[in-house]
Specification:
The longest helix has 17 residues. Strands 1-7-6-2-5-3-4 form a seven-stranded mixed beta sheet, with helices on both faces. The radius of gyration is 17 Å and the shape is globular. The protein contains eight helices and seven strands, in the order ααββαβαβαβαβαβα. The chain is an alpha/beta fold. α4 links the parallel β3 and β4.
């Protein structure tokens, strides 16, 4: 079963790669469905509930547990993903990410941060959506990291709404599922196999009310308002 699921995921990803040249000509609804199919093909059911998502420039932010979070967030609204600059150097995947419109941030070069924030603000002013995981790493789902504030400055500068999204995974008995978590020394291949081998996992996506421009005057309070819940515990994350 796991092999079949991973084969289906691979075929869907290849189909997406083949359609990359079409770019923005692909309807947003089709992209959202494709993203849900990827998660469903991995054997994970999807539930998306909550507020309507604004059109125009928008910063989507979510907690980070798994690689599944990326298609789940795109299933809420297709957006340009913000990722660490190391991904650009990954074989094959880095080039595909760049072609797909991923925006890169160098977390090790603080001097470059103002230019990155300015670039993000420019994208947002142009009416595009940008998706980010402000925790900066994946967490187990029981514990969470604090939202880093830099990305929220771009939303303030561009005067666009912030769309908070909460992502969680539950098992057969309704308890938090550990299979999707991508933490510690985990590899992507091991995580893919574990997710595809699991049974009864449900991805729960809660779209919270958007935070309109002007509702928070500084990035600290905006980040705090967008944070899904208070941080519990100190279980570490996996930097991606």
């Amino acid at each position: 079963m796991a092999v079949l699921r991973l084969t289906a995921v691979g075929l869907l990803v290849l189909a997406g790669i083949a359609l990359l040249p079409l770019g923005r000509r692909i309807p947003a609804g089709a992209v959202r469905r494709w993203c849900r199919w990827i998660v469903r093909a991995a054997g994970v059911r999807v539930r998306i509930d909550g507020a309507a998502v604004p059109t125009g420039g928008l910063l989507l932010v979510a907690n980070h547990i798994s690689w599944l979070d990326v298609p789940l967030l795109a299933a809420v609204r297709p957006a340009r993903m913000l990722a660490k600059t190391e991904i650009r150097r990954w074989p094959v995947a880095g080039a595909l990410a760049a072609r797909g419109g991923v925006l890169f941030i160098d977390r090790d070069r603080l001097r470059a941060l103002p230019d990155t924030v300015a670039a993000l603000a420019g994208v947002l002013r142009g009416g595009a959506a940008v998706a980010a995981f402000p925790e900066g790493s994946t967490w187990c789902g029981r514990a969470r990291g604090h939202f880093r504030r830099a990305v929220f400055q771009a939303a303030l500068d561009a005067r666009v709404p912030v769309q908070p999204v909460r992502i969680g995974y539950r098992g057969v008995r309704g308890t938090p599922a550990t299979a999707p978590a991508f933490v510690g020394d985990d590899t992507l291949l091991a995580s893919l196999w574990r997710v595809a081998s699991a049974r009864g996992v449900v991805a729960e996506v809660e779209v919270r009310p958007p935070l309109p421009p002007g509702s928070h005057l500084d990035r600290r309070s905006l980040a705090r308002a967008a944070q899904p819940e208070a941080v519990a515990g100190h279980e570490g994350g996996h930097h991606e």
